[in-house]
Amino acid sequence: MSYTIENVNDCTKKFIFNFDKVDLSSQIKQALLAKQQNSNLKGFRKGKAPLEMVQQLFGPQIENDALYRFISEQFYEAIQKEKVRAVGYPQFGNTKYEAGKTVAFEATVEIFPEVTLKDYSKLTFKKDSTEVSAEDFETLKKNYLSSKAEVVEVADAKAALAHGHFAVFNFEGEIADGSKPENMKASDYMLEIGSGQFIPGFEEGMIGMKKGEKKDVKVTFPAEYHEESLRNAPVTFHVELLEIKQKNFPELNDELAKEFGFESAADFETKNKSRMALQKKREVTQKLHQEILEKLISENTFDVPSALVEDQKEAVRADLKNTLKGQGFNDQMIELYFERWSSDVEQKALFQVRSGLILDHLAKKYNVEATDADLDVKIGEMVEQSGMKKDEIESFYKNNANVKNNLMYAIREEKTFASLIKDMKVS
To answer: Is 3.30.70.1050 the CATH classification of the domain at 3-111?
Structure first.
């Protein structure tokens, strides 16, 4: 064996190679002949330049390429022999080469760590209820009927503004120096209380106001607010409530239900309650899975490959970027967001990498694999949950290799959790 191995840490190994006699002359000569046949040198027809000239022009580069191929081949043979699961590309260094004699070099590579978990059989978790309440169903029904609802003034003059009401009001903002910017004032402005359209704390500050009442609402602008001068700035809004309005929803009848794509009002209730139950079950399960992972990660420390973390950071940033763009952030605002919350992005990526390594370890322990039969079951659940046609969902997941692989990975995780939970105390 022409190498030794040093363990840098739990997920990094250094291979140290030493070859007493290495003759690369035959490889170099073959490469020179190939280069001669393909060379177009001035004064010679293609492939007819003297070998000595090709050697003079390209020899050092060809020799260097031959050495690199030799180094790469030796390294990859070694990791296959040692059954090392490498992450990313190796870093080569300390290369020493004497033509026709010796070659020495080092290759440092990150590897998947060997994950071992402490006994988790005594860990206890509480799973939330999956019951869908009448209130939950009424909220969903109102979401459907919202486009058919009529916004009218609340008849009771003594009514207090509450969550779900629409406030019609005048407002004027005053910053710390006493000035009142033009872009902080409006008249007859209508706002749905609880919609989250205004600065955090503003809508909450208006709750309880009555028609005709005036009030000062004090808020602090968010640290990531798009206008730099207002970040973390305290502002007082002088508010006058002119009207309180509310939505009057029509009764859900068969005719309206058909407009929403259902056969009848009864069909609307049956299908939506079924879908809500599936959604609630999924949310409760995801919450339990998150709590389990947080506990396992907190109790089991191990090194993780930096290459995996860096790749995951890019994935987290890409997801966040799409989310922020959907919320109206421009490129400059997004960059400022990432600058401020870079540590959060790194922590999230690190958590996801640790989670993936732990779940992979557990999947192997429980001999879990995702099968095509599991995929068909999952597609059936999607059909029931979304109301979409089965052939549309099948086409989407089965005709795109990357999309299918991601779903199969998620199925494998779900099955792993199912096996894991049986060995825990979950009430």
So the answer is: yes
